[in-house]
């Protein structure tokens, strides 16, 4: 079974989906089924159950929102992807709160050439575990905020929260 919890945040509800304590999806939506349908068919076959408390992952979100910006770093996550995408997601997790990188820098941190910025952008677009895999910390080298699956205002809020 995939367990889900919906947490209130200053920027709207955050749905967390976990399997045996490991986050498999998270996103700024009041409806966990919107995240559930993005999971692999194998995980979807387990079913979805909304629970009152996921325990440690929910506590980490509360701590992050209260100012412990490293709290999400210790929560185990797992999402599908090629070895390249997994390297990029791991490199994302290593971008510290309060800092940002460009897509080219993210590719370089993942051991890929800077020319792999497009692959880095794709990894961010396909990220199922925001903000635990903090794709909001990646900005275009041309300036601005770029896109964000949950909307630029959410990305801006997360970056402002982490900068304070």
UniProtKB/TrEMBL annotation:
It is an enzyme of class 2 (transferase). CDD domains: ATase (cd06445). Residues 84-163 form the Methylated-DNA-[protein]-cysteine S-methyltransferase DNA binding domain. The keyword DNA damage applies. It catalyses: a 6-O-methyl-2'-deoxyguanosine in DNA + L-cysteinyl-[protein] = S-methyl-L-cysteinyl-[protein] + a 2'-deoxyguanosine in DNA; a 4-O-methyl-thymidine in DNA + L-cysteinyl-[protein] = a thymidine in DNA + S-methyl-L-cysteinyl-[protein]. The keyword Transport does not apply. Its EC number is 2.1.1.63. GO terms for biological process: DNA repair; methylation. GO terms for molecular function: methylated-DNA-[protein]-cysteine S-methyltransferase activity. Keywords: DNA damage, DNA repair, Methyltransferase, Transferase. This is Methylated-DNA-[protein]-cysteine S-methyltransferase.
């Amino acid at each position: 079974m995939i367990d889900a919890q919906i947490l209130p945040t200053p920027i709207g509800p955050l749905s967390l989906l976990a399997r045996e304590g490991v986050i498999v999806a998270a996103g700024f939506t009041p409806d966990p089924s919107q995240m559930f349908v993005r999971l692999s068919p194998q995980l979807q076959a387990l079913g979805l159950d909304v629970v009152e408390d996921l325990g440690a992952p929910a506590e980490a979100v509360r701590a992050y929102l209260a100012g412990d910006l490293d709290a999400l770093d210790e929560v185990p996550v797992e999402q599908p992807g090629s070895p390249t995408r997994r390297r990029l997601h791991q490199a994302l997790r290593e971008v510290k709160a309060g800092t940002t990188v460009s897509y080219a820098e993210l590719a370089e941190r993942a051991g890929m050439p800077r020319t792999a910025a497009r692959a880095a952008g794709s990894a961010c677009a396909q990220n199922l575990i925001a903000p635990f895999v903090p794709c909001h910390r990646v900005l275009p080298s041309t300036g601005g905020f770029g896109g964000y699956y949950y909307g630029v205002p959410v990305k801006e809020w997360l970056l402002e929260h982490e900068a304070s």
